[in-house]
Amino acid sequence: MFAELGIVLQVLAFAASIYATAAAFFSTRSHSERLLISARNAALLTFPLLLGAAGVLLVLLVQQDYQVEYVWQVTDPTTPLFYRITALWGSQQGSLLFWNVTMSGFAFASLLLNWRENHRLMPYVIIFQMATMAFFGGLSLFGESPFARFWITPIDLTTAQLAPHLLIPPNSEIPPLYVPEGTGGLFAQGGLAQTANGLNPLLRHFGMIIHPPMLYLGFVGFLIPFAYAMAALASGDLTTNWIKATRRWTLIAWLFLSLGLILGGRWAYDVLGWGGYWGWDPVENAAFIPWLVGTAYLHSVMIQEKRGMLKTWNMFLVIFTFSAVLFGTFATRSGLIESVHSFAQSQIGFPMFAFWLVMTLIGVWLIMWRRSRGELSDEHQFTGWLSREAMFVLNNVVFVALALAIFWGSFGAPVISTLFMDTEITLGAAYFNQVTVPLFAAMYILMGVAPLAAWGIMSARRLGKSLIVPLALTAFGVVVAVLLGAQTPGTMFAYGIVLLAGFVALYEIYRGARARTMTTGEALPQALVNIFGRNRRRYGGFLVHLGIVVIGLGVIGSTAYQDDLIQRLLPGESARIGRYDVRFDSLDLGQIADDGRLMDIANLTIFRDSAEVQHIRPRIDHYPEMAVTIPGAHSTLEGDVYVLLSGYDEVAGSSVTLHIYLNPLINLVWWGGLILIVGTFVAAWKDDRATERARAPIRNDTRAGAAA
Amino acid sequence: MAQAAWEKPNSSPLTAAAAAPRSERLKFLIGGGLILVAIIALIATGMSQGARFFITVDEVVEESRYLGQPVRVSGAVLGDTIVYDENTLTIEFTVVHIPEGQDITGETLFNAVNDTDATRMRVRVEGQTKPDLLRHEAQAIMSGTMGSDGIFLASELQLKCPSRFIEGAANQTGSVGAE
């Protein structure tokens, strides 16, 4: 009956979130502090309850309780412990519960940490957070329960009917019709274990273990800024309070989302075996769209903080970031779109669509209402194309255009053509490359120029002057790139704009440290450490820019200069690609791995300029239901030689067919990702300066809150 | 007054009341309009290059207007018909029409391959090794063009086997020449 404990915990959490929503709502009417505290406590309670429910599922997975349908579906008796644990998010039902837990965790933390400072916003924050929690909790409870179980009942074998007098609980499922030989009883525990599915082999990879939780953390994390923005609109506290309260939450959500995207790319590269990491698949795009809108928001919110401008726009961005999260979740989980991530068709599609629509419409309506009352008017006007704020607006145009173009290509065109024409039009990689490359180019150019522009008024002359050093460095960098092999004008230009953005970031960091050595007399390294400590947001931001620059270099190298060939080799023969030779030495067929799968492995030797550099072993793993091609790679900063064992001569066991890719600079994509993550950490960490000043503003705010 | 404390003092010589002159505003409007037009043009050209009609085997075989047009077709693979030449790296197989308006499940594919009346189409993929998932009752999603010889030349082949691993990223994508 352990599974039922999970259901009970989920029901309690569901009830608590509904109560919290209602109590918070009535507290805004009656201004009852007690009711609000009660709402908060109920909201806080959802997290431990859901954590308990997830714990129950974890125990069921580890104990191999195959009566529970989810356990049966994602594990089998040969699944190692590690993958039993990660199976918690291995499929729809479990991942939905996991989603609920992390979402309540974010709500829990933000309610505890921001409770005193943002008292006026709190009732509404609770309403929007807990209404969302209740929706997803209900979805998990009534739509996709991870605790559904195969109900083992005595069966009248003559009629094969369930004994009718038994009370069948609501979470019962009809077991698969399979009678294992020699198990005696129909649907006995042993039988279920034998028929269990096991975790999809493609998901047994390091990147896949942490990619989904990171992505979910990123997705659900955007609930916090969303709830605060909605609370600001609903309560009428349209000062920068909600922005200050959510700045760090937004960065944390953005960090996880970035990490999730990068790990997803890494997983595709290591496991899917097509030599790439990004395929413009609708599911990838569904996760990329909130990232783009969220990135636009992270930039434009600075204009509101510094200049009191773009208030309506920022509201739109933060609400549409979460709206994109909801839409993406709906699109990928409902089976709306054909994708390489074939999520099951499920019943939760319609409620998810309805929830997405309602939340988005409420958000837009609240914005329009406040705007019509003149409460979102800007305090400053734009003063020139070269001002920092104008650059930020252009940056926003680029990010939003990217998001819309990708949305249109992944969802808009296929859905509209299906609804209004008698065919479905899908847009392939050609569309995405055509549309996004110019926009990404614009993004890098702005990334290079905008940090040098000043708030308010900026003359072209001053801007040009501050660009001299970075431009000189860029010119040098482009010459180096040309010497290393960038030949076409397109790649030279691409390297140029990406390098410019990088040199501007480095130059600005250097100038900051330099200025500090002048005023404080510190040595340069010491000053460097200190500027990062004192203005984490600015310099953390530059680190993030550097990360994006490094990723850009990797993407250009690995797309523009990717090379591949397919060749059949006899033992001792070599294939040549670029400066590398790949020699086929021998073939090991039928090797047995720890978990019992069979592996066919090719032993290859890689030579660079005829000097031996590495032995690699690309292989084919045979699982009962499918075979997975695992590449072997010789990986350096210069690039990867990435080899897939595509086939072999089974009879003689002597020849192999190899698909060899040369992916120049591809590792910069992962290294850039690492820099980006470090930079985001720096930016999200509390400022030394802010900590020094922290007390005074908080006291101010609580007084303001009490007065209100 | 938290707002005032938060904002950078003297960040600009302009005050809130100072509005931009009309000519300035016009310039922003024209600039914004140009950007919008550029983005729409970008999407339009992208669509003209990347658009593929997603049609059924019935349609591509029976309607001549799709001859030579880039299309995407989904069909159920007949396992016995798969021929793979390792030397020329050519795969040929036959797919069966999958009726529209149904979710693609193991059952749909089973019914499709066992329907002897359903339309069949020969498919050729060149320059690619045989994907692991290409087998009987798999769903093949092919991008390419119908040749006048009645053989569909696929430049991109995606395969799905919804029989068992229904959830998660259970599919392998193979592609050649498309990018």
Write the layout of secondary structure elements.
The complex is a heterodimer of chains A (708) and B (179).
Chain A lengths: L1 H29 L2 H30 L6 H6 L6 H6 L5 H23 L7 H22 L5 E2 L4 E2 L4 E2 L9 E2 L15 H7 L10 H16 L1 H13 L5 H32 L9 H26 L3 H23 L15 H24 L15 H33 L3 E4 L1 H21 L10 H25 L4 H32 L3 H11 L1 H25 L2 E7 L4 E4 L2 E13 L5 E11 L2 E6 L2 E4 L4 E4 L1 E5 L2 E10 L7 E9 L2 H18 L3 H6 L1 H13 L1
Parallel strand pairs in A: 1-4
Antiparallel strand pairs in A: 2-3, 6-15, 7-8, 8-9, 9-10, 9-11, 11-12, 13-14, 14-15
Chain B lengths: L1 H5 L15 H29 E6 H6 L8 E7 L5 E3 L4 E8 L8 H8 L6 E7 L12 E8 L4 E10 L11 E4 L4
Parallel strand pairs in B: 1-2, 5-7
Antiparallel strand pairs in B: 2-4, 2-6, 3-4, 4-5, 6-7, 7-8
Structure description:
The complex is a heterodimer of chains A (708) and B (179). Chain A is α+β, with helices and mostly antiparallel strands and 708 residues long. Among the domains of chain A are: 1-199, no CATH class; 459-554 and 676-707; 563-664. In chain A, 62% of the residues lie in helices and 12% in strands. Chain A is built from 22 helices and 15 strands. Chain A has helices spanning 2-30, 33-62, 69-74, 81-86, 92-114, 122-143, 189-195, 206-221, 223-235, 241-272, 282-307, 311-333, 349-372, 388-420, 429-449, 460-484, 489-520, 524-534, 536-560, 667-684, 688-693, 695-707; strands at residues 149-150, 155-156, 161-162, 172-173, 424-427, 563-569, 574-577, 580-592, 598-608, 611-616, 619-622, 627-630, 632-636, 639-648, 656-664. In chain A, the strands form four sheets. In chain A, strands 7, 8, 9, 10, 11 and 12 form a six-stranded antiparallel β-sheet that branches. The two termini of chain A are 50 Å apart. With 179 residues, chain B is α+β, with helices and mostly antiparallel strands. Chain B has two domains: 20-51; 53-175, OB fold (Dihydrolipoamide Acetyltransferase, E2P) (Beta Barrel), CATH 2.40.50. Helix content of chain B is 27%, strand content 30%. A five-stranded mixed β-barrel of chain B has the order 2-4-5-7-6. Chain B is elongated. The relative contact order of chain B is 0.14. Classes of the chains: A alpha+beta (708), B alpha+beta (179). At the A-B interface, helix 10, helix 11, helix 14, strand 5 and helix 15 of A face helix 1, helix 2, strand 1, strand 7 and strand 8 of B. Strand 5 (424-427) of chain A pairs antiparallel with strand 1 (51-56) of chain B, so a sheet runs across the interface.
